[in-house]
Design a protein that fits this description.
Elements (H helix, E strand, L loop, with lengths): L1 E6 L2 E4 L4 E9 L6 E7 L6 E7 L4 E3 L7 E6 L4 E6 L8 E8 L8 E2 L3 E6 L1
Parallel strand pairs: 2-11
Antiparallel strand pairs: 1-3, 3-8, 4-5, 4-9, 5-6, 7-8, 9-10, 9-11
Length: about 120
């Protein structure tokens, strides 16, 4: 089993930066990648970025240049740095972990709320 805990969300003003954290515990040694997703009210969940434990990151096109995913293997933590936040970034942000390259994500965190106020 793997447990994921997100943190770092909050209420911020337009244009500021925010860094979210995803702390993983449990059987993380067999994991393939960790990803970040978000879900805004009334909308479907959307993929933002992911990073492989033994490889590089990849991003959804609409966040390239504004969001950066990184990891600290020693802390079993993955970060999502979000810059120039906009009101449309308001959503619940989730991290998730997949144990293999194919298929979907196997474990999910509980989410952290990000609200961007204008």
């Amino acid at each position: 089993q793997v447990q994921l805990v997100e943190s770092g969300g909050g209420l911020v003003q337009v244009g500021v930066s925010l860094r979210l954290s995803c702390a993983a515990s449990g059987r993380t040694s067999s994991s393939y990648a960790v990803g970040w997703f978000r879900q805004a009210p009334g909308k479907e969940r959307e993929f933002l970025a992911a990073i492989r434990w033994s490889g590089g990151p990849y991003y959804a096109d609409f966040v390239k240049g504004r969001f950066t995913i990184s990891r600290d293997n020693a802390k079993n933590t993955v970060y999502l740095q979000m810059n120039s936040l906009k009101p449309e970034d308001t959503a619940v942000y989730y991290c998730a972990l997949k144990v293999a390259a194919g298929g979907g994500y196997d474990y999910w965190g509980q989410g952290t709320q990000v609200t961007v106020s204008s």
